[in-house]
Amino acid sequence: MHLQYFNDLRQLCLDSGVIATFFVQDKVEYLQLKSGEEIRLDHIIRLDDQPAPGYEDYPDFSCAC
């Protein structure tokens, strides 16, 4: 899976990995990758080729190389 999201500093991040689980901590929903990285669901811009809700008009920054 390819992932575009904002980190806690609102920097755009591009990553890939396998989803391990979803969880809630302090009333915030997270996705955890098998690598151990935790990403807030409301910070996700795009999963593979699908934009996240609210980001339908946001540009796709993935490399088509």
Description:
There is one protein chain. It is built from no helices and 7 strands. The chain has 65 residues and is an all-beta fold. The chain has a 4-stranded antiparallel β-sheet, with no helix packed on it. Strands 3-4-5 form a 3-stranded antiparallel β-sheet, with no helix packed on it. It has one domain. The mean pLDDT is 91.
Q: Helices, strands, pairings?
A:
Layout: E1 2-6, E2 12-16, E3 19-25, E4 28-33, E5 38-40, E6 44-47, E7 50-51
Antiparallel strand pairs: 1-2, 1-6, 3-4, 4-5, 6-7
How many strand elements?
A: 7
Strand order of the largest sheet: 2-1-6-7
CA(first)-CA(last) distance: 16 Å
Percentage of residues in DSSP E strands:
over 45%
Query: Which structural class do the helices and strands define?
Result: mainly beta
Please outline the major beta sheet: 4 strands, antiparallel
Q: What is the ordering of alpha helices and beta strands?
A: EEEEEEE
Continuous helix count: 0
Q: What is the share of helical residues?
A: under 10%
Radius of gyration: 12 Å
Shape category: globular
Domain module tally: 1
Residue ranges: pLDDT <50 for 5 or more in a row? none
- Tell me, rounded to a whole number, the average pLDDT: 91
